[in-house]
Amino acid sequence: MKGIPIRTTRSYKMARVFPTDVNSYQTLFGGKLMAYIDDIASIAAAKLSRANTITASTDSVDFLYPIYMTDSVTLESFVTWTGRSSMETFVKVVREDLKTGERQIAATAFLTFVALDDHGRKAEVTPVYPETEEERKLHESAPVRAEMRKQRREASRTLAEFLTKSYPWEPQEDSHTDGQDA
């Protein structure tokens, strides 16, 4: 099989949840977890590409269970699929209650990264292939997610053309009229 095994991109991050990491509900700030997710996913992408990488999209972050101050959080990331210069990365977040040892999948995420050469141009990446059942399921379902990303990106571009760029304190311009008074 052409490419390299997905396992070579596996990356891990572990942290304890401290009082400064939680919100008013005493659970881990979603933004803090999202920063952890982007960080570990970028490492997995760089391990595959051995190049600079940029986050092209955060396709999804699904928060499944709250993470408390009595927990540790472990993130596992790996590249599930590649395009020419893009890489889909998967992140699994496991919360562990440090008093009981109970573990749950607290969140999952998919992000897309693009490899760049030293001149900032897109760089080709090596394809990956799965070996485990978990890797196979994610690898086989990746083309469907890639098509959804493409459609969502086009919808976002269309929406961006519609949105105003002025600040609230500036005179508002209506970009949706043809210059005629109503």
From TrEMBL:
<keyword id="KW-0378">Hydrolase</keyword>
<protein>
    <submittedName>
        <fullName>Acyl-CoA thioesterase</fullName>
        <ecNumber>3.1.2.20</ecNumber>
    </submittedName>
</protein>
